[in-house]
Amino acid sequence: MTIPEITSLLAKRDRRAVARAITIVENQGPDSGPLLHTLAPKLGNAYRIGITGPPGAGKSTLTAELTKLLRSKGKTVGILAVDPTSPFTGGALLGDRIRMGEIAMDEGVYVRSMATRGSLGGLSAKAKDAADVLDAAGFDFVLFETVGVGQSELDIASAADTTIVVLVPESGDAVQAMKSGLMEIADFFVVNKSDREGADNAVRALKTILSFRVTHAAEEWIPPVIKTTASKNIGMEDVLREIESHRQHLESTGQILTRRKERERERVHELVEAMLRIDFWTPERAAKLESELEKITAHEKTSFDLANELIAEFGKKG
Amino acid sequence: MTIPEITSLLAKRDRRAVARAITIVENQGPDSGPLLHTLAPKLGNAYRIGITGPPGAGKSTLTAELTKLLRSKGKTVGILAVDPTSPFTGGALLGDRIRMGEIAMDEGVYVRSMATRGSLGGLSAKAKDAADVLDAAGFDFVLFETVGVGQSELDIASAADTTIVVLVPESGDAVQAMKSGLMEIADFFVVNKSDREGADNAVRALKTILSFRVTHAAEEWIPPVIKTTASKNIGMEDVLREIESHRQHLESTGQILTRRKERERERVHELVEAMLRIDFWTPERAAKLESELEKITAHEKTSFDLANELIAEFGKKG
Question: Among B176, B52, B84, B97, which Cα is nearest to A184's?
Answer without folding.
Answer: B84
